[in-house]
Amino acid sequence: MSDSTKVYCKYSLFLIHAFIIPKRIRKRNKLTQEQFAELVNVAPRHISFLETGRSFPSCELMERICNILHADISEFFKASEKLSREELLKKLEYTTNSLNDEQLNYLVKMAEELY
Hints:
The chain is an all-alpha fold. The chain is 65% helix and 0% strand. The protein contains 8 helices and no strands.
């Protein structure tokens, strides 16, 4: 595992849980979900779950994805295309469902600071 991958993986558990693989990066490489799944050695359904936030990759899978897509890991943490309020709330729901109590409390405190 590269040093930059280790840094991102250790930097913030919250970022890893909030990580959703952008379709734009896969599509930029002209890959279908099925082709991409075969390249990174996972089921096509897992790719769908990663792209919608219903599942989250391990650090090892993140590294494989970066290698296959010729992408820097920082691209996955950049803001993606502008989403509607409904899409944002859906992503937030998927993400928060996987958080433990400590992470959820931290997220609530962060949200409260926005007001």
